[in-house]
Amino acid sequence: MTSFTHAPRRKHVRRAAAVGVVAAGALFLSACGDNGDDMGGMDHGSGKSSASATAEAGSASFVDADVSFAQMMIPHHEQALEMAKLAAERASDSEVKDIATKIEKAQDPEIKTMTGWLKSWNKPTATDSMPGMDHGSGDGMMPDADMEHLTSMKGAEFDKMFADMMIEHHNGAIGMAQDEQKNGKNADAVKMAGDIVEGQSAEVKQLQSILDRL
User: Fold this and answer.
1) CB-CB contact of 65 with 183 (8 Å)
2) Cβ-contact 165, 76 below 8 angstroms
3) pLDDT digit string (tens) for the chain, length 214 residues
4) Which of 33, 137, 148, 151 has a CA 20 to 30 Å removed from the CA of 88?
5) Is the distance from CB of 65 to CB of 185 less than 8 angstroms?
6) Cβ count near 154 (within 10 Å)
């Protein structure tokens, strides 16, 4: 009788132990699976690769208008910087010197940014055959003769010619930027165009007030 009473109990114990092992294994596997998912989520959430890829994809979206805007605005800014650097040495009016400094601070970084766009788009940073860029086709670029004349001036004469030339130069840039706002598709380029319209429109008013009092 004893053997019959104990044998089933041992069998029951074995079954319970086996069920316990299976359950523990299932819990372990489930925990591992959850940790794997959590880690994957952490990688996606904290890693910069996905965000960077999205940013790069967005910045890579462009049309011909965006390319033309950057290619034409780079030399336009470069000429403005050339004029601004002359003001540091030749201007006598403090406000002229101040606005020349503002132009350098704003436009030098923009040149670097636009150059970076063109490189990322696999487009040339300049076009050798840019019709109208030499010059005076409504884009505000100064003819070489005017630049040479400005270089030869100093003091009040320089201040007047600088203000007059920069107004025309800025108006050309504003027109180019407005075209980009209408026709461009790259978000960064369109934003810069808006900044140029706003910033240089304010400078045109300041330059006109300088010219009026000189």
Assistant:
1) yes
2) no
3) 444 444 444 444 344 444 443 444 443 434 444 444 444 434 434 444 444 443 454 456 999 999 999 999 999 999 999 999 999 899 999 999 999 999 999 999 999 999 999 999 999 987 644 444 444 446 889 999 999 999 999 999 999 999 999 999 999 999 999 999 999 999 999 999 999 999 999 999 999 999 999 8
4) 137
5) yes
6) 13
